[in-house]
Design a protein that fits this description.
The protein is α/β, with parallel strands linked by helices. Helices cover 31% and strands 23% of the residues. The structure holds flavin-adenine dinucleotide (FAD).
């Protein structure tokens, strides 16, 4: 394979595609970075019978797809995938490797970084190129109280993980052209020390929060698990998705998949309803792309109220109930 001076690799994480779009989002960001580095963007794909993904990556901005196909790669294997990434990264020496912070990516990226003896910045919320050509990796740190800007000047590749929903994908374009480069499966591969017992696709609903146009998010100010059910009811009436803060998820009022924030999902709804949420940085860091925020809180000085386009000083439960009632009446009157 002819290797240009610089290449930016994006790990092709296609599990749960179509819902999980992080690879496409990283390809878009890699294109921005590549234009500054005069680099090419490569999707690096391990699997079996993956033609449809190759085409998809090219249509979303990959200049090249480096692919290893083998029946033993049909199911994700962190050990095999790490060995492959290490081998080919040593061989082709990409400048940058970007990996989605999916459950697999979070396990895979640190292993690859360790094998390649380089650094890794986890959960980046921004990526830029510095004046001297390093990757500036912007990530929350110290529990989200600081935003750190990290560079890796002495080691290559520069590696970062990025949470799904952080960047916007390039729209699908069938006219984009790219090259597929098939790499040989090495003869010697590590034996799997883990045995896959079962594989279950995540329900579609869990994947949609990052893409939802309407998100109804509830916090501790909702008061109790039974009162929090109103958040679900309102979200359903608005054809939206439910979001929650960490105390809610920890208390079991809503599932892990609803967590919004540094430790959860980054959202970009057109309308975000925020009920009884104080607005800690770990939560609000994931709301920066929300177009319009309506917050309800007893405390007018809560950070969330200051961030909001409309701030309602009131009891979160009462406002939630009133909205549910009004929407039901509207639906009823339309069907009469
Ligand atoms: C490393 C780390 C990572 C973290 N990651 C995340 C994360 O990803 N996501 C996340 O959300 N948090 C995260 N947190 C926790 C975060 O710091 C906050 O503790 C959390 O977001 C607060 O949730 P809350 O707003 O629901 O609760 P609180 O901070 O307790 O706020 C409750 C709000 O409700 C209001 N209120 C009370 N009663 C009513 C009422 N009847 N009507 C209206 N308003 C009312 C109060 O005025 C208050 O503003 C993280 C923390 C750490 C240290």
């Amino acid at each position: 394979m002819n290797q240009p001076k610089n290449s930016i690799w994006v790990f092709a994480d296609y599990r749960n595609y179509f819902q999980n779009r992080v690879t496409l989002q990283l390809l878009a960001k890699a294109n921005d970075l590549a234009s500054e580095l005069d680099a090419e963007v490569c999707a690096v794909l391990f699997g079996y019978e993956t033609d449809e993904y190759m085409a998809e990556y090219i249509a979303h901005g990959a200049h090249k797809v480096l692919v290893v196909e083998h029946p033993s790669l049909k199911q994700y294997s962190v050990e095999k995938y790490t060995a492959l990434m290490e081998k080919f990264a040593r061989e082709y020496q990409p400048e940058i490797i970007l990996i989605g912070a999916t459950s697999f990516g979070k396990e895979f990226a640190p292993r690859v970084a360790k094998c390649l003896d380089t650094g890794l910045t986890a959960d980046c919320i921004g990526l830029e190129i510095t004046a001297d050509g390093n990757l500036l990796q912007i990530a929350p740190s110290f529990g989200g109280n600081l935003i750190a800007e990290i560079i890796t000047p002495d080691h290559r590749p520069q590696m970062a993980t990025v949470r799904p929903g952080t960047f916007k994908e390039i729209p699908h374009n069938d006219y984009l052209r790219g090259e597929v480069v098939r790499l040989k499966m090495p003869k010697k591969m590590p034996a799997d020390r883990l045995r896959l017992v079962a594989y279950e696709r995540q329900p579609e609903r869990d994947q949609r929060l990052e893409e939802a146009k309407v998100v109804v998010c509830g916090g501790r100010g909702m008061g109790s698990k039974s009162k929090f059910k109103k958040i679900f009811e309102l979200a359903q009436l608005l054809s939206g998705e439910v979001g929650a803060t960490r105390p809610i998820v920890y208390a079991g009022w809503a599932g892990d998949d609803t967590l919004i924030g540094q430790a959860g999902k980054h959202i970009k709804p057109q309308i975000l309803f925020s009920f009884g949420i104080s607005g800690a940085i770990q939560h609000t860091a994931a709301l920066t792309d929300a177009d319009f925020i309506i917050a309800v809180n007893k405390n007018p000085n809560a950070t969330m109220m200051k961030m909001a386009d409309v701030a309602v000083v009131a009891d979160a439960n009462q406002v939630c109930s009133a909205l549910i009632k009004a929407l039901k009446e509207r639906i009823q009157s339309k069907s009469d």
